[in-house]
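Researcher: Next entry in the queue.
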Amino acid sequence: MDREALIANIREWQARIGEAAAKWGGAEICGVSKTVDPETVNLAWEGGIRTLGENRVQELLGKIDRLNPDFKIHLIGQLQTNKVKYIIDRVAMIQSLDRPALAQEISRRAVAAGVEMPALVQVNIAREPQKAGIDEESLVPFIRESAQLPGLRIRGLMAIMPIADDPEDVRGYFRRMRQWFERLRDMDIPGARMDVLSMGMSDDAVVAAQEGATMVRLGRALFGARPAKI
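Model: Structure for this entry, 230 residues:
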């Protein structure tokens, strides 16, 4: 995709998401740059993208030094505990906090590096056995415990919805995520600040924005079909 086409595409999606999320005050687009070359990713800055989402630690480390340093980079893919040390001082947020062991390792590495790491708790809202995430029943105690760990700052929730031919089929899950987001915000758990609700991807981002996402994650919708490799 050339510069003009990419920027036009971004602006079209900004308008669509802005309209869909208007009742909630808007939603930010996180550009998912998995398998997209750094030169193309950097063009997204000109279109107004300020946050990037990367899925894999190895790929991120291979191209981060060629990315515009002003991007805020979020790790959005499942994170192994043994990879935390590589990204603890290189990303602005971890969106895929999904288990106590990971929370503890992020805390340990953040303290050692002298940083505070914002994180979103990934919720398995549809109870899909093949997907990571905290179950609804465990959500409150997990957030209470994680929010007390030094160096770790709970900033909100993230979810990946089931694949659906019609995004209307998953609207109820988005609505439930917003309900959890507001409930947790009202609980005012010490150490947790609920201000980011990351949900919705290329196929269902408009519905996600309508149901209260503060951030949607768009890869293919912005950059086109992913190449096989960088």
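Model: The chain has one domain: 3-223.
Researcher: Noted, moving on.
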